[in-house]
Design goal:
The protein is of the alpha+beta class. The protein has 14 helices and 5 strands. It folds into 2 domains: about 25-195, 2-Layer Sandwich (Beta-Lactamase); about 205-284, Arc Repressor Mutant, subunit A (Orthogonal Bundle). The chain has a 5-stranded antiparallel beta sheet. It comes from Paraburkholderia hiiakae.
C-alpha cells in the first residue's frame, strides 16, 4: 500500500497522542489533530454522571482568558436539559453522537437552546462518548458556530474508533477536581463539594423542582408532572411527550395545565425561569 506525506503526518500525530496519553496537554493535543481535518470552535471533555453535575476534565479557553459564565451556569444545572446528557443517562453507548441524533423535535424552540446553546455553542455539536459504568460517561464534545456538513460527520465517524480508544486509555490518568481514582471510584467527596457550592447533587432534576416548590410555597408536583416538565423544557413537543410516556396527547395537555396552575406560571419561558433563573443570571 502506497502512503503519501499526509498519511505519514497523520500517523505521526496519532503517535504523539499515544505518547501524551498521561500528560496535562492530552486534550489540547487531540483537538489539534482533529481540527486539521474538521473545523470547530470550542471543545470540552467531561464526565457525565446520572443526576449529578458533570466533572470537568478540560475545556477550551476563552479568547480573553475570562471565566465562561455560560458554562458555569451549565454545570450548575443547565446540563439537566442537555440532550447529550439525557441521552448518555438513558442510553449510554460508546462512539460518535451527533446533535441530530439526540435533539428533541422542539429543541430549537426551547429556552435552553435560545439562552444557552445558541449563545455558547451557536451552530452544531458532536460528542465522542465512552461509558465508564452504569452511572458515568466520559465525553469529548466539539462545538461549532456553523452546522457540520455530511463530510464533517463522516470524518468524525471515521475518527471515532481511535478517539474513543484513546479516551479509554486516558481515563486512568485523568484528573478532575480531585483526581480520577477518587472521582470514579466514589463520588461522595465531589457530592459534598457540589452541595457546598450550591450545585445540584445526586437527586437531580426532581430534587431541584421539589426544592423550588418548597422554598416558594408552591404546590408540589407529582412524579408524572415532573417528567412532563423536564421533557417539555428539554424540547419535546406535547405529541412527543405523549409517545415517550405512552399516554394520550390530551393527558399531556392536562398535565401541563395542572403544572402551570400549581406553579403560578403561564408560559414555557416562565416555567424555565422558575427553575433556572437563580443560576441563569449569567444568561440574561
Amino acid at each position: 500500500m502506497e502512503l503519501d506525506w499526509q498519511d505519514r503526518a497523520f500517523h505521526h500525530h496519532i503517535a504523539t497522542l499515544i505518547d501524551a496519553i498521561d500528560g496535562s496537554d492530552f486534550w489540547t493535543r487531540i483537538t489539534r489533530v482533529i481540527e486539521r481535518f474538521v473545523a470547530f470552535d470550542n471543545w470540552v471533555a467531561l464526565v457525565f454522571r446520572r443526576d449529578r453535575a458533570p466533572l470537568v476534565c478540560a475545556e477550551s479557553p476563552m479568547p480573553d482568558g475570562t471565566v465562561d459564565l455560560l458554562f458555569r451556569a451549565y454545570l450548575e444545572g443547565m446540563y439537566l436539559l442537555d440532550p447529550f446528557y439525557l441521552n448518555a443517562s438513558e442510553k449510554p453507548r460508546a462512539g460518535l453522537i451527533t446533535l441530530a441524533e439526540v435533539a428533541p423535535d422542539n429543541f430549537r424552540m426551547t429556552d435552553y437552546y435560545q439562552r444557552y446553546f445558541k449563545s455558547n455553542i451557536i451552530g452544531d455539536e458532536v460528542q465522542f462518548n465512552l461509558p465508564v459504568d452504569g452511572e458515568r460517561t466520559l465525553i469529548f464534545s466539539l462545538g461549532a458556530k456553523h452546522h457540520y456538513t455530511e463530510r464533517d460527520i463522516a470524518l468524525f465517524a471515521m475518527f471515532a474508533p481511535w478517539v474513543v480508544a484513546l479516551m479509554k486509555q486516558r481515563l486512568a490518568s485523568e484528573t478532575f477536581a480531585e483526581g480520577v481514582a477518587e472521582a470514579v471510584a466514589s463520588d461522595s467527596a465531589e457530592a459534598q463539594s457540589a452541595a457546598q457550592q450550591g450545585q445540584l447533587s445526586e437527586a437531580g432534576f426532581a430534587s431541584r423542582i421539589e426544592a423550588v416548590t418548597q422554598q416558594s410555597g408552591r404546590v408540589a408536583l407529582t412524579a408524572r408532572e415532573i417528567e412532563v416538565v423536564r421533557l417539555s423544557l428539554s424540547g419535546f413537543s406535547t405529541r412527543a411527550i405523549a409517545e415517550r410516556l405512552e399516554i394520550s396527547f390530551e393527558t399531556v395537555r392536562a398535565h401541563k395545565k395542572h403544572i402551570y396552575a400549581k406553579l403560578g406560571v403561564s408560559s414555557q419561558s416562565e416555567l424555565f425561569a422558575l427553575f433556572y433563573e437563580p443560576l441563569g443570571r449569567a444568561l440574561v
